[in-house]
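User: structure tokens for this one?
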Amino acid sequence: MATLRDIKRRIASVQSTQKITRAMKLVAAAKLRKAQERVIEARPYAKQMAHMVDDVAVRSVRTLHPLLREGRPADTEAAPHKLVLVVSGDRGLCGAFNSNIIRRSMDLVRAGEREHVALSLIVVGRKVRDFYRRRPVQVRSEYVQIFDRLAFDHAQQIGREIATAFTVGEVDEVDLVYNEFRSVVSQRVVTERLLPLPVAQGDEPPEEFIFEPSPAAILAELLPRHVETQIYRALMESVAAELGARMTAMDNATKNASEVIELLTIQFNKARQERITRELLEIVGGAEALRQAR
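Assistant:
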């Protein structure tokens, strides 16, 4: 049975942990507001960029730019190769945020094995990097510790690597896996096709546009920027989603700590009452024994 000292030590330990979880919740809440504003501001731009790319591409032919290529070149006999860009967090203590991303990426890896498709990864975030370091999966490159200073330059670097690999024919399809920020308590794992760029095909023929300088020149400038923009949006979504998940997880941990402290306090009071009762019984018993001895 735990002594009073042991129970007091456990209460003090839980109280210290509660202070940490409460502080982490406040820090995440302070950062979340700014991250949420950035995501909300970036979504319309990314959406309009995708609409504009689709509008131009549907009125052009896919041979005008290699990022619109579908399927392997005719003179290539190698098996199809898929590249997956996986975005996780650098830190833990955020609930199922990282595990959900890792689980979805492993589903894609297993699906590639079943379909006999070569698959490689670009990992963003320390958690997914550490996970795949211990597994026989090809990781082309890794980007860690970038979320505290996230800038468009990071998306440009990743986008150039992906576009180059796709353009030279090293990969035939690029998928993007990340956590989409929906609310403070809700994040959704999303898998999107990044390359080749999906182009909607309507039932009616598109209206003819006059391009200046030319469709090829416009696509050469627009398509790489579109890829980088979508990557940047996904990175910002992941940052906001991680902060929301951490805020929720630390709030739950703080509440659980309060419950544990309450239970330990009840246990401490019961143990102290038992100890006082036992000491009183010993005193009364000793007094009665002295009285009878006289």
